[in-house]
Design a protein that fits this description.
Strand 4 and strand 5 (296-302) form a beta hairpin. Strands 4-5-3-6-7-8 form a 6-stranded mixed sheet, with helices on both faces. A two-stranded antiparallel ribbon has the order 1-2. It contains 16 helices and 8 strands. It has helices at 33-42, 48-51, 62-66, 82-93, 95-131, 139-154, 176-183, 210-228, 231-239, 255-258, 267-274, 338-351, 367-375, 380-383, 394-403, 420-444; strands spanning 2-11, 16-25, 70-76, 282-288, 296-302, 317-323, 359-365, 410-414. It has 445 residues and is of the alpha/beta class. Bound molecules: guanosine-5'-triphosphate and magnesium ion. Magnesium ion is lined by residues 82-83, 301. GO terms for molecular function: G protein-coupled receptor binding; G-protein beta/gamma-subunit complex binding; GTP binding; GTPase activity; metal ion binding. Pfam families: G-alpha. Residues 157-172 have a biased composition (Polar residues). Keywords: GTP-binding, Magnesium, Metal-binding, Nucleotide-binding, Transducer.
């Protein structure tokens, strides 16, 4: 059976964007000579910037290059749909991997909350030890912290409990229950918190007893919520430099939902449990294609604006999210229209020498919301001054966006990222095409 590959490329001089088609033999992965001859004949005329990145080192074995993970970055302003797109990629490329990890991630996520609360209890213990008498923490906090630590630590089965605060004594400073507490749940699976970089499924790390973890967490549920939502506690944690927004605390906000015996991780939970990078603002996911085993994608969702990052080394594909919500401004800059902000980001990408040779997939996302707004009579020209007298409909608006594309190997699609199935199809096709295009070009150079 053959594989048909279609790609768009800018052909010079002046031929504009052309669709190229190749056929590959599925078994050997080799292009079929006669059918591809015509397409190959135009390759030398493709813009050299397209060809350049594909020639990594002269004499490199193209097959070897082909088998390296494809490095993909998902970029877009906050709320543009990056995570939704990532979910679609999982569904398209590795649905079984994702489902099996949903089960495993349950314990990893619950342990993440236990780890977080242990860190918090340890900080509170330090606060009491260092500032006894002057700390803003009350005896109520002390009782709560103590009862939580007791439930967690007693699960080790070997704890020497300190005096109960109910009997009038205070929680002791020093190691004592703190050490016992820290040992609970070890060795564990991990959600790759700050210092770790492996997935929940990594061999050798998944030794915690899932039902015991779930029971302990359920028993601590109310106490954890009380402690975590307490303003005084938060101030104390901040004053001790504990990063409450960091990876290590990222599931605490969802304790009410997660600390239950019947908890099933959502798609979002499963993805967050799998992220691998300690870099703030960056989430890295390794997806192994199930239809083409051996093909790996290293997909990174970046929450920071372009220009602040040196994360683009060696990236092959950027999926850029351009949400079509022309009537909204940015939360962080209420005078800046979202479309304008998106175009500024876009300009940053296409003018960056670092990304000059990266292939680009632009997703004009939230098309369902755009359609609803236009159907409700919202006028584009009221928000986008240079819209002029164009017709106030979806095709005209989309045409403007597409016209802004540059002379680059570029795929543009309108998407509704929350419709994971259709986005998965669009993206899967675009990414597969780009891999084969890349492979073919390497062979031609
Ligand atoms: N109706 C609609 N909602 C969408 C679409 N794409 C994303 N959303 C919603 O928009 C919100 C933000 O989507 P995310 O995928 O979390 O966006 P993000 O870019 O990852 O956001 P940050 O990680 O916070 O920067 C979520 O509530 C999504 O359900 C879309 O095409 N249509
Ligand atoms: Mg996100």
């Amino acid at each position: 059976m053959n594989i048909r590959v279609e790609a768009y490329a800018n052909i010079y001089p002046s031929a504009g964007t052309r669709k190229l088609t190749w056929l590959f033999d599925r078994t050997s992965n080799q292009p079929i000579r006669e059918q591809t001859q015509k397409a190959l004949s135009v390759i030398p005329r493709i813009e050299t910037t397209v060809l350049k990145p594909l020639v990594r080192r002269p004499g490199n074995n193209p097959r070897k290059t082909h088998r390296q993970p494809v490095k993909v970055i998902i970029l877009g302003q906050p709320g543009s749909g990056k995570s939704s797109v990532l979910r679609s990629l999982y569904l398209d490329l590795a649905p079984r991997q994702f489902e099996s990890e949903r089960v495993v991630s349950k314990t990893a996520i619950q342990i993440n909350i236990i780890d977080s609360i242990k860190k918090i209890l340890a900080v509170l213990q330090d606060e009491w030890a260092a500032h006894e008498g002057s700390t803003p923490l009350t005896s109520e906090h002390q009782r709560l912290a103590f009862s939580l630590s007791l439930v967690l630590a007693s699960e080790t089965g070997s704890i020497q409990t300190p005096d109960s605060p109910n009997s009038g004594s205070t929680v002791r400073s020093g190691k004592g229950w703190k050490d016992k507490l820290m040992s609970f749940g070890r060795p564990t699976m991990s959600t790759s918190s700050d210092s770790e970089a492996h997935s929940p499924g990594d061999s050798g790390s998944a030794t915690a007893d899932p039902s015991r973890v779930a029971q302990v967490l359920a028993a601590c549920r109310e106490g954890i919520i009380l402690l975590w939502e307490d303003d005084v506690v938060r101030r104390v944690l901040s004053s001790h430099g504990l990063n409450l927004q960091g990876n290590s605390c990222r599931f605490l906000d969802d304790t009410a939902r997660i600390a239950r015996l019947d908890y099933i991780p959502s798609d979002d939970d499963t993805m967050r449990a799998r992220m691998r990078t300690p870099t703030p603002g960056v989430e890295e996911h390794r997806l192994v294609s199930e239809s083409n085993p051996g093909r790996e994608f290293l997909v990174t969702e970046i929450h920071t604006r372009i220009g602040q990052l040196s994360y683009f080394d060696d990236v092959q594909t950027i999926i850029f999210l351009a949400p079509l919500i022309f009537w909204q401004t940015l939360d962080e800059a209420p005078r800046v229209n979202r479309i304008e902000d998106t175009f500024n980001m876009w300009r940053g990408i296409v003018s960056s020498p670092l990304l000059a040779q990266t292939t680009l997939i632009v997703l004009f996302n939230k098309k369902d919301i755009l359609q609803a707004q236009i159907a409700a009579g919202v006028l584009v020209k009221k928000y986008i001054l240079n819209y002029g007298d164009r017709t106030n409909d979806v095709p005209s608006f989309s045409a403007i966006n597409r016209a802004s594309s540059t002379r680059r190997l570029l795929t543009c699609c309108d998407t509704e990222a929350t419709d994971t199935k259709s986005t998965a199809m669009v993206l899967g096709r675009a990414m597969r095409d780009q891999i084969f295009t890349k492979y073919l070009m390497i062979r031609c150079t």
